[in-house]
Automatic annotation (TrEMBL):
<comment type="subunit">
    <text>Homodimer.</text>
</comment>
<dbReference type="InterPro" id="IPR022643">
    <property type="entry name" value="De-COase2_C"/>
</dbReference>
<protein>
    <recommendedName>
        <fullName>Diaminopimelate decarboxylase</fullName>
        <ecNumber>4.1.1.20</ecNumber>
    </recommendedName>
</protein>
<feature type="binding site">
    <location>
        <position position="398"/>
    </location>
    <ligand>
        <name>pyridoxal 5'-phosphate</name>
    </ligand>
</feature>
<dbReference type="InterPro" id="IPR000183">
    <property type="entry name" value="Orn/DAP/Arg_de-COase"/>
</dbReference>
<dbReference type="InterPro" id="IPR029066">
    <property type="entry name" value="PLP-binding_barrel"/>
</dbReference>
<keyword id="KW-0028">Amino-acid biosynthesis</keyword>
<dbReference type="GO" id="GO:0008836">
    <property type="term" value="F:diaminopimelate decarboxylase activity"/>
</dbReference>
<comment type="function">
    <text>Specifically catalyzes the decarboxylation of meso-diaminopimelate (meso-DAP) to L-lysine.</text>
</comment>
<feature type="binding site">
    <location>
        <position position="316"/>
    </location>
    <ligand>
        <name>substrate</name>
    </ligand>
</feature>
<feature type="region of interest" description="Disordered">
    <location>
        <begin position="321"/>
        <end position="362"/>
    </location>
</feature>
<feature type="compositionally biased region" description="Basic and acidic residues">
    <location>
        <begin position="324"/>
        <end position="338"/>
    </location>
</feature>
<comment type="similarity">
    <text>Belongs to the Orn/Lys/Arg decarboxylase class-II family. LysA subfamily.</text>
</comment>
<dbReference type="GO" id="GO:0009089">
    <property type="term" value="P:lysine biosynthetic process via diaminopimelate"/>
</dbReference>
<dbReference type="Pfam" id="PF00278">
    <property type="entry name" value="Orn_DAP_Arg_deC"/>
</dbReference>
<dbReference type="InterPro" id="IPR002986">
    <property type="entry name" value="DAP_deCOOHase_LysA"/>
</dbReference>
<feature type="domain" description="Orn/DAP/Arg decarboxylase 2 N-terminal">
    <location>
        <begin position="35"/>
        <end position="279"/>
    </location>
</feature>
Length: 442
């Protein structure tokens, strides 16, 4: 459930028409809904009810300061994977005591900064990392709270690039080997074992893999308890999927209920690290059609957003719904043409409010980047004219945060809507920022 909806034939974010946002801030532009973000965060927080818990938003999904600040004000913790994300959380007013540091390659300077600000826990992914954290903590005269991220060898049944819980993946410590590593960790003067962590992948659409992983983690917790190693919290990672097109993932309430049922009366605090399920459907990418280009085989709609703005379709073949900002009026004459001849584009009037409605056609929605893989949507049935605005839904997570300057394209603006107000929360990058910091040879 989100707050992007049509009023009349105009798509709105909460009470603000997206057309007005495009006119005021330009395109491409990410638009987030404050109400949706809050609702999704609360859905997780409420779902765990009175069970001790902490919902740590995965900063990688959307690291805009306004988003982080909003979640921090709701009481969120944060799951980070770099010192850059840590600094973002701090700049946004997040509590370092609610920060979980994940990631397979934490550098010494990153660990030092996390120790300095006093984060909640390091999710340790290898024995070498454990040794490094121990040494750095001793050097500073502190004790580092640690969990081991275990690899439970569970198939997340998601895209292979975003499945992380299989033996062959780089993530975590083999769950079979974890017991010995815990014993070793428990003896180190610079470490305090506080939890077990597990994150098996992203965009999971069924509960089975989560429960399989939890069962394996609980077995490990029991074995550790038998050896006097006390676990305070279980961090079950993120990964809950969202609906992009026709997926039907469980809602946070059902997911949390299933975890809770399996946990029964066990007293562990539960930490979750959702990213996508909080931010994904709280954002759209707003883009304008620059050109319609019929070719002998396809109709291309070349829009002003590209793979550098939204990488998921190019990287994973991900499908995200693309909808018109101005929905065409129902028009009996605008039936699909029976043949596949490309539509003529020249006679389409510029003003979308007065021109005749174009016919729906199958379009390849592509960007201006010089890569054949630069597509945002394939074979989408839309009634388009040049100048039209489109909204790519489900872009609030792994959208802007994965964007780049490829082809020397300034990164998009980001706008947060709050009721009937639209706030610019990151201005569009300028052209000179593209090469700021670069030097020519003397
Ligand atoms: C360690 C860790 N935690 C949390 C997340 C957030 O995942 P999601 O956005 O699928 O909830 C990720 C990304 O998959 C991750 O790698
Ligand atoms: N970037 C991915 C998710 C990766 C999750 C990171 N652990 C996506 O867009 O679906």
């Amino acid at each position: 459930m989100d707050h992007f909806h049509y009023q009349g034939n105009q798509l709105h974010a909460e009470q603000v028409p997206l057309q007005a946002i495009a006119e005021r801030f330009g395109t491409p532009c990410y638009v987030y809904s404050r109400a949706t973000l809050s609702r999704h965060w609360r859905a997780f927080d409420d779902a765990l009810g009175t069970r001790p818990h902490l919902i740590c938003f995965a900063v990688k999904a959307n690291s805009n300061l306004a988003v982080l600040n909003l979640l921090a004000r709701l009481g969120a913790g944060f799951d980070i994977v770099s010192v850059g994300e840590l600094e973002r959380v701090l700049a946004a007013g997040g509590d370092p005591g609610k920060v979980i540091f994940s990631g397979v390659g934490k550098r010494a300077d990153e660990i030092e900064r996390a120790l300095e600000v006093g984060i909640r826990c390091f999710n340790v992914e290898s024995e070498s990392e454990l040794a490094r954290i121990n040494a750095l903590a001793i050097e500073r005269g502190v004790v580092a709270p640690v969990s081991l991220r275990v690899n439970p060898d569970v198939d997340a049944q998601s895209h292979p690039y975003i499945s992380t819980g299989l033996k062959e993946n780089k993530f975590g410590i083999d769950i079979e080997a974890a017991e010995a590593v815990y014993r070793h960790a428990a003896e180190q003067p610079g470490l305090r074992v506080v939890g077990i962590d597990c994150h098996i992948g992203s965009q999971l659409t069924s509960l089975g893999p989560f429960i399989d992983a939890l069962e394996r983690v609980l077995l490990l917790a029991d074995r550790l308890a038998a050896q006097g190693i006390t676990i305070e919290h279980l961090d079950l990672g993120g990964g809950l999927g969202i609906r992009y097109t026709d997926e039907d993932p469980p809602l946070p309430a059902a997911y949390a209920a299933a975890l809770s049922e399996r946990l029964g009366a066990r007293a562990f605090e539960v930490i979750l690290e959702p990213g996508r399920a909080i931010a994904g459907n709280a954002g759209v990418l707003l883009t304008r059609v620059e050109y319609l280009k019929p070719t002998p085989t396809h109709r291309f709609a070349i829009v002003d957003a590209a793979m550098n703005d939204l990488l998921r379709p190019a990287l994973y073949g991900a499908e995200q719904e693309i909808v018109p900002v101005r929905r065409p009026d129902p028009d009996p004459k605008s039936e699909l043409r029976p043949d596949s001849t490309p539509a003529p584009v020249a006679d389409q009037a510029a003003d979308p409010n007065t021109r005749p409605t174009p016919s729906p056609e199958l379009y390849e929605i592509v960007g201006p980047v010089c890569e054949t893989g630069d597509f945002l949507g394939r074979a989408r049935r839309l009634a388009l004219a040049e100048g039209d605005l489109l909204a790519i839904r489900g872009s609030g997570a792994y959208g802007f945060s994965m964007s780049s300057n490829y082809n020397s394209r300034p990164r998009a603006a980001e706008v947060m809507v709050d009721g009937d107000q639209a706030h610019l929360v990151r201005r569009r990058e300028t052209l000179s920022e593209l090469f700021a910091g670069e030097e020519t040879l003397p």
